[in-house]
């Protein structure tokens, strides 16, 4: 495994991996989740993306945003052919390390309330549900972890 920070040239690969990883949720929620519709040409210049390669194949990524008092995990995507190998856990641990390095004592994330398996994973990693927010397209579950 190798991890590296993305550059603008990676926007297309980020878009493709994210669309593939999130496609399984479309039938559940009846629409494309937010990460499938993001403008990655823009996001890669404004946010940090760390790309995880397995045998030279882009297998997973994590997008983080430095906020005033915490690190926000905006997106975690694992290619379907690499799911179930602990790559999501590895990326979340990486984000926690980044948060520590930036001097933050808190990391936050949000996900769709209907993505139950993701919420369960985050709980196992020590995250708690802070609140649920009703939005026009569903319910967003906001979670955090003190570091």
From TrEMBL:
Keyword annotations from UniProtKB, A to Z: Acyltransferase, Transferase
Coiled-coil ranges from the UniProt annotation: none
Protein name: N-acetyltransferase GCN5
A molecular function GO annotation: acyltransferase activity, transferring groups other than amino-acyl groups
N-acetyltransferase domain mapped to chain residues: 1-147
Organism for this UniProt entry: Reyranella soli
InterPro entries according to UniProt: Acyl_CoA_acyltransferase, Bact_Acetyltransf, GNAT_dom
Gene3D superfamilies the record matches: 3.40.630.30
Glycoprotein in keyword set: no
Matching Pfam families: Acetyltransf_1
């Amino acid at each position: 495994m190798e991890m590296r920070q993305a550059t603008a040239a990676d926007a297309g690969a980020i878009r493709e991996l994210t669309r593939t990883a999130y496609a399984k949720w479309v039938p559940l929620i009846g629409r494309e989740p937010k990460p499938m519709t993001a403008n990655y040409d823009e996001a890669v210049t404004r946010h940090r993306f760390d790309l995880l390669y397995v045998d030279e194949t882009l297998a997973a990524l994590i997008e983080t945003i430095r906020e005033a008092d915490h690190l926000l995990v905006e997106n975690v995507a694992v290619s379907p052919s690499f799911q179930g190998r602990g790559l999501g856990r590895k990326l979340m641990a990486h984000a926690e390390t980044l948060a520590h390095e930036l001097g933050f004592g808190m990391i936050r994330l949000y996900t769709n309330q209907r993505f139950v398996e993701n919420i369960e994973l985050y709980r196992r990693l020590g995250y708690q549900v802070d609140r649920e927010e009703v939005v026009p397209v569903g319910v967003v579950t906001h979670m955090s972890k003190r570091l």
